[in-house]
Amino acid sequence: MNGNEFVAPEIDWLALAPLIVVLGAGVVGVLLEAFVPARARRVTQIVLTLAALAGGLAFVVYLWPQIVAQPVQVVGGSVTLTPFALGAQGIIALLAFLGVLVVADRTATGQDAFAPTASAVPGTSYEDLARKSGLEQTEIYPLLLFAAGGMMLFASTDDLIVMFIALEVLSLPLYVLCATARRRRLLSQEAAAKYFLLGAFASALFIFGVALIYGFAGTVRLLEIAQRVQQGALPLEGMSALLVAGVLLVTVGLLFKIGAVPFHAWTPDVYTGAPTPITGFMAACTKAAAVAALVEVLYRISIGVQAVDPEIMRQLQVVIVVVAVLTMAVGTVIGSVQTDVKRLLAYSSIAHAGFLLVGIAGFGPQVQSSTLFYLLAYGIATIGAFAVVTLVRERRVTPGAPEDNGPVADDGVVLGEATEIAQWAGLGRKAPWLTAAFALFLLSMAGIPLTAGFIAKFGAFAGATSGGLWWLAVLGVLASVVAVAFYLRLLVVMVFQPGTVEPASQVEPASRVEPVETGVSTSSTSEGATGEGAEGSTSEGSVATATKVQVTAAQRVVVTVVRSRGPAAVAIAVCAIATVILGVFPSLVLNLVAEASKFVP
Amino acid sequence: MDITNYVVLAAVLFAIGATTVLLRRNAIVVFMGVELMLNATNLAFVTFARMHGDLTGQVLAFFVMVVAAAEVVVGLAIIVTIFRTRRSASVDDVNLLKG
Q1: What is the rounded CA–CA span in Å between residue A594 and residue A547?
Q2: 34-63 in B: which are within 8 Å (CB) of A?
Q3: Which pTM does this prediction carry?
Q4: pLDDT in tens, A65-98
Q5: Is 0.85 exceeded by the ipTM?
Q6: Rounded (10°) CA dihedral A206, A212, A216, A219
Q7: Which domains does chain B have, with CATH numbers?
Q8: Looking at beta carbons, which residues of chain B come within 8 Å of A168?
């Protein structure tokens, strides 16, 4: 039996370190839930989460020179670290770090964005009890780490089955996180259900595509598929229909995660319903991971497809081009008629998926580097923008009542986020710095020069032209112009419209099912993020009778800007500074990401 | 019997599952459609493994099973939460988010 002795596989642990640190910290976080006393749990979890993501990023930086010199395959190619994959890992870790900062912020209201117990039925006495006893759902931090780890793996694997598992590892925590909003619980649960059902459908399509590719090539490793096709060593000769169907299904699964039309239907609903810090995390990091995975799959599989039949390759490119055009059109046109800030940002995210696809559709040589830069620029602007949304809140006041009548009364209670665009009128005066940062993020998303978004879009459109798709780049520029219009509309409302003439604010019915948050002192919430008072009532809206909260017609909902307790303010500041630096001195990062196009098979 | 029949059966089951997801209204039934799609995939994996004469496909089927189980846990948790809130598991009733 000597020949059957166990041979331990050789594993390059260092190359796996970024993944191990993040996913391992997620496991440790689950244990912390069991062993750390409730009082210290939240701080412990936040420190662990931030440390893990920073550690992952540090390992990426440490590995970078090695990988740029020589890419490695670890665990039999399950993790394939090329400069592109490692760069995507680094970007995801960085964006997740910023996203967790926003998640961790309790703001001056003393409450984070998450339900005390997400399993409690909204509006029941059990929920009241959970809130009053100060329960907290600290499980969100391990869930965030698992999601971030899954994303990092998703972006850096060559093995379709590992990609499928990474897809689930990143998706399942996100489904749960979507359902945990403290306010507007019904919307939050609805978002989770929609995301879950459509997400599960998309991953089923993805895995059936993998099965068909396996049937065609006898392997699920992308590079091996390409080799076997080129060598003609295929188990099922002449069944290229399997390859075509498989590649299409896998692409559809990935396009769903990116939020490309016609697989975008979930995006606006989920982005609106999920807790806003989670929306920011999801919008930035999931898109980065999914786009990186799409680039890897398309570029590696295209070698095989090209070898089987150049005509099929051309048709695949047509599919990507059509999806890109549709995505840009739907994102910008429907986005321009939205009245809700979160929904508007969701359609903007769809439009950005279209711009990214424009860059990818060219199949040009520099796509990897321009895509990485785009993902970074889009990600920091998105996280920053959603962080600003978390700070703009509704506050209920009764006319004539003293402003500081203590925590027992309903007056001055800070409610959920004021997401109607009309409610944002006059924000420029209440919180000039916050408005300036938000304006910067919007301008970056619009692609105005001297912001990161301009360089990013330039790179994407240059990618299309280098592949000979001039007209697609022109369409992209046109779509950008339409997009500029809807970003500017929001800016005009914030900066130039006086807050007092704003129409009545509409509170969605679901927001009122959630009982009033008591225990919030008015004095701590009535200050603007920049320290100036936000007492001036900005909106006068009669609120219809609520199902649970006793809101009378005499009460008004005003818009206030709550002060961040630090983390979110840091995240916004970092995002704003990074947006400017990437826009003014892009060469710093462009030189780095230029390495990402090396070693493309 | 020709082994390609199993591939055809897998495709048919997958199509039935996909149709269920797209047409049925009850969240639980929609979810069962997804499970049917995943199990059709397993059948395809195992059949292809038999055709190619290697074990990769059979191992992959196990991975898919584990993922499906994990998906059930999360999915049912979400559906049950919604059911407790609204006394309904119909995807048509879940319609607050529009536009």
Answers
A1: 57
A2: 34, 37-38, 40-41, 44-45, 47-48, 51-52, 54, 56-57, 60, 63
A3: 0.87
A4: 988 888 888 887 788 888 999 999 999 999 999 9
A5: yes
A6: 50
A7: 4-86 (1.10.287.3510)
A8: 67, 70-71
